[in-house]
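Case study 2.
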Amino acid sequence: MSDISGGTVGSAMGSAIDGAMSNAMSNVLRIGLSRRAVTVVRTSGWLRTRTELIADHHFPAHADPLDQLTTELGGVLADPRCAGARLRIVLADEWMRSWLVTPPQNVLRLEDCVVAAQARFQALFGEAVAEWQMQADWDCVYPFLVCAVQQRLLQGLQDVARLHKQVLVEVAPQFVVAWNRWSAQLGADAWFGVMHEGALTIGALAPHGLQALREIQLSEPAIRDQRQLQLLLKREAVRLNVAAPTAIRLCGEIPLHWVMQTIDGLAFSRLDRERPAPNLPRSAGLSLALTGLR
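Prediction:
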């Protein structure tokens, strides 16, 4: 699901793992895109990654945020420091539609899973499937994660990259980038969470992988006191009829006071580095752009 800029469906999760293996390669622009900000960081180096902040632009609400986004990104890519670099774009999950699909009984073909995913998309979001591009970790046995992004957004990003003679290597939602970077280190009894600007995407785990996905906007009181998150996880476990997690592994823009604590049997820890680029000022956009950086 890492590279949703291409036209093939394929095994999305697998392609993300392959893409992450080249994270340390030199001369890459890592770009974080939310609805209100464009952050571009240039990374270079093989053994020791060097980081340079090219832009961290915030812009007001716009009648068409997609047009505003591509305009802002185009202005940044005109910077001479961006010449010749490859682009890896991380989309804030607010740009995405993400959901889990249980494969139909006795399914035999991938096409049956695709049809099930499309039907679930229309039931959940009520939008035309043709206007979105889907990628998934297709599975004929277990529930699988599907993500969709607007065709118009992908086309806009491709056009901007082409205009500035850049190679667009990857376009990926933040949750998927983080999942493919860290899922092997979660442990059997842990759940997974990715946070950006107060929005937390939680993945409930089963032995086969993800079994539920929950996206919530945390209030300021909930951010100040993570006990409220613990209660939410317990309610979700009851709804799923599974045991509550004993740990939650977090990455992204995580409050400092959340980590390295155990509260009533639930351990909070972070997987990514607190400061992925110690030489750069902390910001939500920087955390988004550098998601999955090794």
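The domain at 21-92+151-176 is CATH 3.30.420.40 (Nucleotidyltransferase; domain 5).
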